[in-house]
Records
---
Amino acid sequence: MFNDLNAISNRRASQTVWHHTVMTCLLMLSFVFSGSSWAVDAEQVTEMIAKADRYRLNSEQASKVVSVVHLFDNDKLDKTRQYNVYTRPNRESLVIFKSAVEAGQKMLMIEDNYWLLMPKSRRPIRITPMQKLLGEASVGDISTLTWSEDYRGEWVQQENVELDNGELVTTHKLKLTAKTKGASYQSIDLWLTTDRAFPVKADLYLRSGKLAKQAWFDEGERNGLPSVVAMSLLDKIQPNKRTLIEYQEISEQSLADKYYNPAYLSRNSVSGL
């Protein structure tokens, strides 16, 4: 009798081990076949971000970007401003204000430092990247067109994102964390398509952890290549307002070093740029 009880006990123990083994295998298989790339490593994330940057700024060389900002209120155009942005490597940008109401103004970004230069003043004004220009468009939104120089990324999960037209897009959700003091945002939740790493949307967070705004990216072509041609900025506090930054023209163009000197800019007009 005792032998029979031992046999039954052993069989039950074996069945329990077998059950746990099967469940573990099924769980692992569910990860493999769910389509979720759960093993995306840091190097792959870095490559994704670099690729996403190239959709925004097609060249790694010094470039001129003609940015037109449209402010919509209840889907009606309220205001428009134009900014010519001269960007070059190592986080340096010069922004020329081209609209008549802002004529003569310019903004300079050198790494973590930002200056606003007014036409009737020879004293550069220190500002932050969160300084608003029009609507939800801030200095940082206009002067910075890449993520890889200011943020380090971490893979979060694979996620479907619904577009305005109802289409579902499979994306990699990344968490970007600022690695420079001059970064426009403390952190960014960024969604990139799984097939091409094209940017779909981004949630932009302040240092306090508060969601500042949400960005959506529009795809088009530039020089025959798929590119980000516009970025819409939404504020959940004012859902009736929308700011659209349209990148009308991007071309390789280099300026002399003097144009990246606040002292030179405060004494000289650069309205011809």
---
Amino acid sequence: MDPKELPSNVRDDEISEETKKLISSLPSRIDYQGNKICKYQGCWYFYNTLQGVLNFQRGFQPQDTDIILASYPKSGTTWLKALTVALLERSKKHSSDDADHPLLYDNPHGIIPFLEIDVYSESSSPNLAKFSAPPRLFSTHMPLHTIHARSPQALSLQDCVRVSVLESRFEEFCNGTNYFGPFWEHILSYWRGSLEDPNYVLFMRYEEMKAEPRDQIKRLAVFLGCPFTKQEEDSGSLDKILDLCSLRNLRSLEVNKTGTVHKQCGAQFFFP
């Protein structure tokens, strides 16, 4: 594949000379797909993603009301983003039945962008005008120790996640050399954070979200500062949000069938 056809975070053509020098001093390898990755602060990144991480660390100015959704790749990130948007819109008196609901007009990843892949991918001082109204919503795949000093509030949703390719990927996963790995260190960073400061780090498990969605969404709403009233529960407000944010419903929306996110990734990629 032509390198220019790869998603921007996978390529290595947009990194500064300073970052190139740093990369030359870091452990590096080629992943199972032939992409270059390097290990920074205990976590493996594509080169361009590392540029975004460094930009974030240099330039991010947190606000007390910021909410950062942290997850390991492919562990329920899209669902968590949709639920968070729906809960906060509800707190603004925006019903899940409204025809102008944000989730009907934008992909969850467009509403809540990744710090290292989207917001800070090109600069340490991006234009954050669209995030002027609190709370600002961001997401990340970075482990907690990379963002801890700059993250006022974080949600964490984690999940245990062609023959030769599968074998190579499995080996990388077990060795901890996969993208954003090692897996267990990533998970434990947020688990420990939730124990040390439960008011600022909420740890959620994908399995529990699937098994008891009503209880978990109520727990999420409390953490976000917009708990459900008994009247709302009795009127079906909670169930409407779960239905709006179901992958079945999100997959059916035209906005999630066309267009791109992360600059070059098709929106439908997140709804197989």
---
Amino acid sequence: MRYYRLWIYTCNWLLFVSVVGFCVVGCKVLVLDPRRQVVPSLGLAQPSFLYAYLALLCQSGLLQLVGCLGAHRLSERLLNAYWLLIFVLLIGDALLGVFWLFKFERIASELRPLLKQSLARYGTDSQFTVLWDGIQSQHRCCGVQGYHDFAQPNVTDIGKSSIILL
């Protein structure tokens, strides 16, 4: 039984470390990266993200508490709840992965036309203009497919960041 406890403690510690790492990377990608703001269908309050928030919260505290208490007390009920929670989270994470596999394909296929439509707001919408200039400066590129995107009839001004890069 001692090795069983050690195994649960080790798994909980590794799970907690991986959840913290995942949260750091997720925060960097979803909150701090300005490119996410260009895609309007990628809001932080969509149902798949809400599930992810709940799962991360569960994996970063509740799961470890149930597992460690069950291992410490050798409580069969708590250990069964621990394994059930792990199984439910595994199924939920797998379903979420399949969902994002298809959603990513849809976002990727719609992204280029969406960006070209959004480029019409360049120069008129100051918030979008600042966002677009920041993205172009950071990635040393201009336009959706190149600087010629600014030659469209509805775009009257070539971006400051495009001029700097040219």
